[in-house]
Design goal:
The chain is mainly alpha-helical. The chain has four helices and no strands. The chain starts with a helix and ends with a helix.
Length: about 90
């Protein structure tokens, strides 16, 4: 009898967890649709969506992390000869 009670409890707990995840997945879909709508609005107002996404991505990072990424990007671009003004100096 005790085993059946434990099994019943575990099944109920599992069902609750699955239902919570399903509910959150639905909320996530709704939020994703809202975000898509805001991007469409921004595009309709003339904003570049690719750049807007980059700005949002950068705002999520700490200033130190952004600076480190920018420094590495500068190193890579320089190594590839892609630094603005560098091509003019070489010519």
């Amino acid at each position: 009898m005790a085993t059946k009670t434990k099994t019943s409890f575990a099944e109920g707990q599992l069902k609750t967890i699955v239902e919570r995840i399903e509910r959150l997945e639905e909320e996530k879909k709704a939020i994703a649709a809202d975000i898509k709508e805001v991007y469409a609005e921004a595009k309709g107002n003339g904003y570049d969506i690719k750049i807007l996404r980059k700005v949002i991505s950068l705002r999520k990072k700490e200033p130190e992390e952004r600076m480190e990424e920018e420094a590495l990007l500068d190193v890579y671009l320089a190594a590839l000869g892609m630094v603005p003004g560098e091509a003019e100096e070489a010519a």
